[in-house]
Give the backbone structure.
Amino acid sequence: MRLDVFMTPAEAIPAEVAGRTVVVIDVLRASSSIVEAMASGARTIFPVTSIEEAIRLANTLGRDEVLLCGERRRLTIEGFDLGNSPGEFTPERVAGKTLVMTTTNGTASMAAAAGAARVIVGALLNLDAVVEELVRTGAHPVFLCSAREGRFGLDDAVTAGRMIGALVEALPDVEWTMNDGARAALALGRACDGDAAALFAQTAAGRQLADVGLEADLAFCAQVNLRDVVPVLQDRSITLNGSA
Ligand code: MLT
């Protein structure tokens, strides 16, 4: 079976993702926040790439009916209801709600997955749930790391690697054909299998979050298998079963 990792969205050319299951990873923090929001009972999330598009969509849907969320330079966008800290997406805030979200890298990488047969959102928070879904569907998966403004991110690569490690372990009889990114991620995941919060603190993304006082998010995003949900992106919106 084929298994590929793309370390940046630019690598995910349409021919490579067409017809496949793509796991989008932005562990710091967009995919962690999406997992948390869905686990907290959010009805649907519309990921969009720009602030203007987010506001336009919120107005179309009815500004009072939606929560605008996301970040620029890691901080809550002016006039938005929530930022991009997973801990903000509590049941009290988001249960039953429609969210419109824009983040710097995470929502852009979801756009890069257009053309995939299926797009799911992965983080350490839902690692086993994603792996079980890949096993269940017999997918030849692509792991798409959101990276940081087009540059390699160790946090996403290690998360992909840990997922691949669990997938390979769950399917011991499968012969995998992996691209170089997948082999590198697998090696990184095995080498960095300790406390993910400590690793995150050393990454560029982690340092940037700490610089603005958001280091608590690193510990939150480092939790493994806290949530048993698989967010699915379909027709521009994310739900738990892919049918808004
Ligand atoms: C992003 O999508 O760029 C990230 O999630 C940035 C952040 O940490 O908010």
The longest strand covers residues 66-72. The radius of gyration is 16 Å.
